[in-house]
Amino acid sequence: MTPLQLFCQQLANGLTLGAIYALIALGYTMIYGVIQLINFAHGELFMVGAYVALTLVLLSSAGPLPSGIPWWMTLLVCGLGSMAAAGMLGAAIERFAYRPIRHAPRLNALITAIGMSFFLQNALMLLYGATDRHFPNPIPLTRWEVGGVTVTLMQLVVWAASGLLMVGLQLLVMSTKLGMAMRATAQDLKACALLGIPVDRIIATTFVIGSAFAAMGGMLFGLHYGTINFHDGYLMGLKAFTAAVLGGIGNIPGAMVGGLVLGLLEGLGAGYLSSQWKNVFAFLILVVLLLFKPRGLLGERVADRA
Amino acid sequence: MLKLEEVEAGYGRTSCLHGISLEVREGEIVVLLGANGAGKTTTLMTISGLVAIRGGAVTFQGTTLSGMAAAELVGLGISHVPEGRRILPRLTIQENLELGAYLRRDRAAIRLDLARVCELFPILAERRRQLAGTLSGGEQQMLAIARGLMARPKLLLLDEPSLGLAPKLVSAIFDAIKRMNEEGITLLLVEQNAYRSLQIAHRGYVLETGRVVLADTAARLAQNPRVKAAYLGG
């Protein structure tokens, strides 16, 4: 393998991980955007998504469904199902845990989020057990050699799914009325209420979308690694949070860029130095960034003249 | 059209309004005068649902408003242009205006209204694609009023529209208020500039520490020795 081929291979691997980080990071950044809360339970919604997808994959391979369904159909159903489940859970968390304390000091909400994270993590452990669970992968093991670089069908699925969702989100946010209301709510909640924008509903919608994206990340994570564990959400959540800060918290394109950059750096670090150190790279990036560019890569504000 | 009867309201444990009664009739411009802290802004916020009503009643065209959320009141036809303008700086001027019509579904009429407010404030038409945060203070005030109009209100509440503006822009704002009124919008106005606002208003109220101490036609208020001494510089 030539050095260039090795580099491209690590790039492909890093891009896969980065796409998953980006999906999770989007939820952090959108929720922070509308209510200035770091939703520490977000990593657990990612895990809920992974487990719901696992349940659906097991159901579809083991039983009532007729065999002979193409693999992508199975994946589509599992993905949509886990997105819907996590989306509803996200909305419920917002309604019953965060909304009652929206006007309380910020620390209260932060502590509530951490508590919610513990609650969900332990609920998952009770439901699915504390041991690693095998995640059966319906995607065929097809692989291609492109100029000496191996690309798997699995990787293509990750890129396509996350790419589609991100393009869709960008369209929603930038060119629909709902998206405009979301951007407005992120700037001034009270002014939006005076315009007749139903801010509670906009915030709930943000939670639904963010949680659904995390769930898709969870399913792709399970498919990619082959096993999942109830506490995987902790580290993945922290990494995705790093990605969101890297891109500039509150900034949607920033979360996408941050996720991809973090994945690429981790992939390259794992390839050239040691994969044992990849978490060190991730958090070193966070520390260095906060020192020199605390608003993140794209987190620059337009001057607000009065 | 709008009626406040013995309204009490406030923040936290303190009350700011101690039984305010006033009335705005259809087609009028009514001005609230008073020193800082008299309760003018709180009165507007109570009408638009940002501050909860603790006692008394607010009715708008026969509907009791107490307990309604700010967003519902927009649907009833009350638009509030708040103190400090509260435009959305990182959205374009066009987007700010479109959000003003958030609850409306009549697309064709929205487009007409967009043209109408741009005619009222031509600077907004020129800068449609610009971020609202790049506008000057006076232009932001025009945008805030225009955005309020986009909801097609029956009653427009304006809080200190001329605050901090250059004299030329103050005139432009007052001319626009007069024109809106002639086009059929009822206005309740809070203003520091008592002289200009009594010129365009039909009636006025003077507030002191959360109570109405004077109520009269604008012409008579402008002649009232107490008003002259306190707000018109002798």
Summarize the structure.
The complex is a heterodimer of chains A (306) and B (234). Chain A has eleven helices and four strands.
Q: Could you name the key traits of this structure?
A:
heterodimer; A: 306 residues; mainly alpha; ABC transporter involved in vitamin B12 uptake, BtuC; two-stranded antiparallel ribbon; 11 helices; 73% helix; 4% strand; globular; B: 234 residues; alpha/beta; Rossmann fold; six-stranded mixed β-sheet; four-stranded antiparallel β-sheet; 10 helices; 27% strand
Q: What number is the mean pLDDT of chain A?
A: 91
How large is the share of residues in beta strands of chain B? Answer: 25-35%
Q: How many strand segments of chain A? A: 4
- Summarize the main sheet of chain B: 6 strands, mixed
CATH class designation of chain B: Alpha Beta
Give the termini separation of chain A: 59 Å
**Arrangement of strands in the largest sheet of chain A:** 1-4
CATH fold name of chain B: Rossmann fold
Order of helices and strands of chain B: EEEHEEHEHHHHEHEHEEHH
Order of helices and strands of chain A: HHHHEEEHHHHEHHH
Q: What is the 3D form of chain A? A: globular
Would you identify the CATH architecture of chain B?
3-Layer(aba) Sandwich
CATH class of chain A: Mainly Alpha
Write down the domain tally of chain B: 1
The CATH homologous superfamily of chain B corresponds to P-loop containing nucleotide triphosphate hydrolases
SS field, number of helical segments of chain B: 10
What can you tell me about this protein's structure?
The complex is a heterodimer of chains A (306) and B (234). With 306 residues, chain A is mainly α. Chain A has one domain (10-292): ABC transporter involved in vitamin B12 uptake, BtuC. Chain A is built from eleven helices and four strands. In chain A, strands 1-4 form a two-stranded antiparallel sheet. In chain A, strands 2-3 form a two-stranded antiparallel ribbon. In chain A, helix 2 (42-62) packs antiparallel against helix 3 and helix 5 (153-175) packs across helix 6. With 234 residues, chain B is an alpha/beta fold. Chain B has a single domain (2-88, 153-231), classed as P-loop containing nucleotide triphosphate hydrolases (Rossmann fold, 3-Layer(aba) Sandwich), CATH 3.40.50.300. Chain B has ten helices and ten strands. In chain B, the strands form two sheets. Chain B has a six-stranded mixed beta sheet, with helices on both faces. Chain B has a four-stranded antiparallel beta sheet with strand order 2-1-4-5, covered by helices on one side. In chain B, helix 3 packs parallel to helix 6. Chain B starts with a strand and ends with a helix.
